[in-house]
Amino acid sequence: MLSLVKPSPCLLLQPNELRRFYSTNNNLRHNPVTNEWVAFASGRSGRPNQFQPKRQKEKPTVPSKVDDCPFCVGNEKITGETLLQYPSQESSGWSLRVVNNKYPVVQHPSSRHEDDTLQLHALKSFIPSRLNAQLPAFGHHEVVIESPKHDSRIATSSVESLTQLLRAFHSRGQHISKDPIVKHLLYFKNQGKKAGASLLHPHAQIVGLPIVTSNVQDRIEHAHRYFQRNGRCVVCDLNKEEMTSNERIVSSNSDFIAFVPYAANTPFQTWIVPRKHRDNFLQSDSSELHSLSSILLDVFKRLARGLNE
Fold first, then answer.
1. CA 265 remoteness from chain centre
2. Is the pTM of this model over 0.90?
3. Cα–Cα–Cα angle for 79, 84, 90, nearest 5°?
4. Closest Cα to residue 213, out of 21, 44, 3, 10?
């Protein structure tokens, strides 16, 4: 998962200013004990589901096109407005499309038919003013349809295809990050039903949130404390340590290092870190995007073999 965080000032809101937030279907609720924000999105229960309800003894054959799949060629009208599209080199069609998520966790006020002046003003600077605080789930939620082929898989794709995906991430990220509502930008991809995917067709997602998640905020604060103590970047020091020990390196190239963290908290957890000191993904140039695609593909192929995917 890639993320981008933008700092913002804070303003204490009174309960009467928050009252109008509660009428929205989707909202972000604050846990005052853990300092976590939790998204409540009841509308996502209506998402289409292409996975079999029962476990199959053998992996089913996946066709290259499914007539009722909203992401397949010929069904472009189902997904609505195209936000970004790259042409295909093999046909007159497309090779990648970006559209708004029809079942969003967050939604931009411009797509809502109501007066959101107060909410927009409040979102620009907000801290919880009571125990059970909540915000309307404003933001951006987009879907990146990675390929016109229903049976395409990222572990069997090419460096060129992955570079195209990262270019789309970069382009849409630049656009979304200009919105003053957005404080935290996430890129993610769910692989399979257990990971949360509801459609087989290969796709990734981009979410622009109006808050910074607590786990990311904790990392930023910890990195700041490390710098104050040592005068160096903790990630740069970690890179040097991993390259010196060479015990957990999965893959590397001239721009990036992929390794299993010493204190990995999940099986197969792999970090891909730039060799150069970088603030966020949007600072990457075209050469680095291609280099990142190369190491990503290597890692995905290794994971696919290890997990028998």
1. 20
2. no
3. 90
4. 3
Contact indicator for 24, 113 with CB cutoff of 8 Å: no
d(CA 109, CA 126): 17
pLDDT in tens, 145-202: 999 999 999 999 999 999 999 999 999 999 999 998 899 999 999 876 666 567 889 9
Question: Which residues contact residue 204 at a Cβ distance below 8 angstroms, ignoring those fewer than 6 apart?
Answer: 143, 144, 146, 165, 169, 187, 188, 189
**Whole-angstrom Cα distance, residue 3 to residue 215?**
11
Q: Which residue has the tokens 């079942």?
A: 103
Q: Return the closest-CA partner of residue 205 out of 153, 148, 142.
A: 142
- Distance, in Å, from the CA atom of 146 to the CA atom of 144, rounded to the nearest integer, reads 6
| Upper half-sphere CA count for residue 139 (Cβ side, 13 Å) | 28
Per-residue pLDDT reduced to its tens digit, 94-145: 999 999 999 898 888 776 545 455 455 555 545 556 677 777 788 999 999 9
Tell me the mean pLDDT in the region 209-214.
88
Report the length, in residues, of the chain: 309
Distance CA 161, CA 164 (A): 5
Q: Write the CB contacts of 283 (distance below 8 Å, at least 6 apart in sequence).
A: none
